[in-house]
Amino acid sequence: MQPLMPEPPIPVEKTLALIKPDVFEKEEEIEDIILRSGFLIVQKRKLQLSPEQCSNFYADQYGKMFFPNLTAYMSSGPLVAMVLARHNALSYWKELLGPSNSIKARETHPDSLRAIYGTDDLRNALHGSHNFSSAEREIRFMFPEAILEPIPTRQAAVDYLNLYVNPTLLAGLTALCKEKPADPM
């Protein structure tokens, strides 16, 4: 037997989004698209990174040919950092962004943000975290005061409910059924 209503999505997954310096002036327009796409903007700040901060943020890209251009570009002006939340936030944000190369994005994903706002492979308008661990690291980098809850996997959430919540509910509801109070509140 199938449930009548689908399971409600819970916005527990978070990812980092950056509006890069070359499209900083399009912030409101881009945020509107983000919100209409079902994301919640949990935190937001405007900042300008130094070349050293950019080097630290993109440390995983160190040694690649484009690294100096990337750090110069990302420190060339202000940017907007946002923590986005949504059910399956990482995959939905990647889908909304499109391919990292804006030229390729225009060919294969013409409605993606990078196709619309990006210029090329480097100046692709927006950043998104690649996976859970990079999202956590990047959010901590941009929002050091943020309290990050571990993102439960589906099985971890089910295990938690079975171990802690269900026994308490069962005991409480059983006691309620035995007593049958006139005012259960």
From TrEMBL:
One family from Pfam that matches here is: NDK
Identify the Gene3D superfamilies for this entry.
Answer: cAMP-dependent protein kinase regulatory subunit, dimerization-anchoring domain (1.20.890.10), Nucleoside diphosphate kinase-like domain (3.30.70.141)
Q: Which GO terms describe its biological process?
A: cilium movement; CTP biosynthetic process; GTP biosynthetic process; negative regulation of oxidative stress-induced intrinsic apoptotic signaling pathway; spermatid differentiation; UTP biosynthetic process
Q: Does the keyword NAD apply?
A: no
Which molecular-function annotation in GO is an example for this chain? nucleoside diphosphate kinase activity
**GO CC field:** cilium
Of which family is this protein a member?
Belongs to the NDK family.
The protein in question is named: NDK5 kinase
Give the species: Nothocercus nigrocapillus
| Gene expressing this chain | Nme5
